Amino acid sequence: MKHLLFGFLVTVCVCDNLSSINLPVKHLPYFFTANPEIENQCKSDSKCLYKEYLFKKKYWGYEIDHQWGKQYSIPECPGDHKGWVKTKFDQKNTFYTQGDFGFIKQQVYRSFEIL
Q1: What is the pTM of this model?
Q2: pLDDT digit string (tens) for 54-69?
Q3: Long-range contact pairs involving 27-34 (C-beta distance under 8 Å, separation at least 24)
Q4: Which domain, by its residues, includes 96?
Q5: What angle do CA 111, 114, 36 make, to 5 degrees?
Q6: What pLDDT shows up at residue 1?
Q7: What range does the record give for the signal peptide (predicted)?
Q8: What is the count of structural domains for the chain?
Q9: How many CB atoms lie within 10 A of CB 87?
């Protein structure tokens, strides 16, 4: 798991050249939100092709400053929540922290604490 997360972090951090961005268009707002240095580089570059994606703040869900409901995927948990947790939101949040980007967030920030 650490190798996968490390590879993900390195891939995101190494891509600091605007011409080397190779992502699906729908991922660009998430990429720029997660990489403010690259976002600023594009803002200041008159030839940057991605300006329309700069002001659409979207979060994958692992970022420290993301707000619930603005992440890439919002958990859907059909059925009754009783027996597992107290509320429907708690049910969705449990899924988020155990099997979605919330789990990645915990692992990423825990790895920084170790260093």
Answers
A1: 0.64
A2: 988 888 888 878 777 7
A3: 28/53, 29/53, 29/56, 29/57, 29/58, 30/58, 30/59, 30/60, 30/72, 33/57, 33/58, 33/59, 33/63, 34/59, 34/60, 34/63
A4: 74-115
A5: 45
A6: 46
A7: 1-15
A8: 2
A9: 10
